[in-house]
Amino acid sequence: MKNVPQPLDQRALRNALGTFVTGVTVVTTRDRTGTPHGVTANSFSSISLDPPLILWSQALTSRSYPAFRESDHFVINILADDQVGLADHFARKSEDKFHAIDYEDGLFGAPVLPGAAAWLECRKVAMHPGGDHTIYLGRVERFANVCRRPLVFGEGRYLMTAPHPMAA
């Protein structure tokens, strides 16, 4: 008898994946009409320093998916630990997520959020299918590190970072 894979318990898998703590970002872009779009994402990773490449992934069902799919540029705004409200704001469904939100236009027009711990302005270099998500690969064209403590997410909630007492 062959080993037949059993269906995965998605809740249990989500809980297991949640033990890996990640940073919290708001990824922003502009659509063809110039309208800004943004989405909270913790599916972000550094890939390479030479060339400077990052990746992030977005659900195919996201309201802003068409804007990111068609845009050539985006900004990864790495949120600071006091920006939980901003993370929640961009995680909610809304027609105009930038109503009453301060931002500056980046090098290619995508919104840069003030107060972020760091931001990376990227040119999209590839898109790859990833199940119910699309994986975006971006080349960092410009960045800033404001040296604030980042907001992190793990075990289904926002967390704060602190030095480990055993770290030298």
Keywords summarizing the entry:
single chain; 3 helices; 168 residues; Pnp Oxidase, Chain A; 12 strands; three-stranded antiparallel β-sheet; mainly beta; seven-stranded antiparallel β-sheet
Task: Give a written overview of the molecule.
Pfam families: Flavin_Reduct (PF01613). The protein has 168 residues and is mainly beta. Helix content is 13%, strand content 43%. It has three helices and twelve strands. The chain has a seven-stranded antiparallel β-sheet with strand order 3-2-6-9-10-5-4. A three-stranded antiparallel β-sheet has the order 1-11-12, with no helix packed on it.
Question: What is the total number of structural domains?
Answer: 1
Identify the overall geometry.
globular
Distance between the termini: 54 Å
Regions with little confidence, pLDDT below 50 for 5+ residues = none
What's the CATH H-level homologous superfamily? Electron Transport, Fmn-binding Protein, Chain A
Would you tell me which CATH topology applies?
A: Pnp Oxidase, Chain A
What is the string of SSEs from the N terminus onward?
Answer: HEEEEEHEHEEEEEE
- Mean pLDDT across all residues, rounded? 93
Count of helices?
A: 3
What percent strand? 35-45%
CATH architecture: Roll
Write a brief structural summary.
The protein has one domain (23-153): Electron Transport, Fmn-binding Protein, Chain A (Pnp Oxidase, Chain A, Roll), CATH 2.30.110.
Furnish the topology, listing elements before pairings.
Elements: H1 10-17, E1 22-23, E2 25-30, E3 36-41, E4 44-49, E5 52-59, H2 65-70, E6 73-78, H3 84-91, E7 104-105, E8 111-112, E9 118-130, E10 133-145, E11 151-154, E12 157-160
Antiparallel strand pairs: 1-11, 2-3, 2-6, 4-5, 5-10, 6-9, 7-8, 9-10, 11-12
